Amino acid sequence: MENTREVLRIVAVGHVDHGKSTVIGRLLYDTKSLPEGAIDKVKRIAKETGKPFEYAYLLDAFE
Questions:
Q1: pLDDT value of residue 19
Q2: String of DSSP letters for 24-62
Q3: In angstroms, rounded to a whole number, what is the distance separating the alpha carbons of residues 29 and 38?
Q4: How far is it, in rounded angstroms, from Cα 48 to Cα 45?
Q5: CA distance 59 to 35
Q6: Disulfide engineering: 56 pairs with which of 18, 22, 35, 60, CB 3.0-4.6 Å?
Q7: What does the pLDDT look like over 4-56, one tens digit per residue?
């Protein structure tokens, strides 16, 4: 039996600052789709810069 994976494509559309990146970051976190250590890296950077952690920052880590 062939090992295949179904692909789900999602488009997030909305106005500026309406939570698109936050929702996508949270989905990545909840589905365990982040590279190992990504969440710790983003939390460390947020702490070092004096900002609160936000799931939206996870997307910036991939740029």
A1: 93
A2: HHHHHHHTT-SPTTHHHHHHHHHHHTTPPP-TTHHHHTT
A3: 10
A4: 5
A5: 12
A6: 22
A7: 888 889 899 999 999 999 999 999 999 998 888 889 999 999 999 999 999 99
Residues in CB range of 38: below 8 A, 6 or more apart: 58, 61
Dihedral angle computed from the Cα positions of residues 22, 48, 60 and 23, in that order, rounded to the nearest 10 degrees: -10
Whether residue 39 contacts residue 28, with contact meaning beta carbons closer than 8 Å, is answered with no
Q: Tokens in use for 32?
A: 């365990």
Whether 1 has a pLDDT exceeding 70, the answer reads no
Q: Do 53 and 21 contact (CB within 8 A), yes or no?
A: no
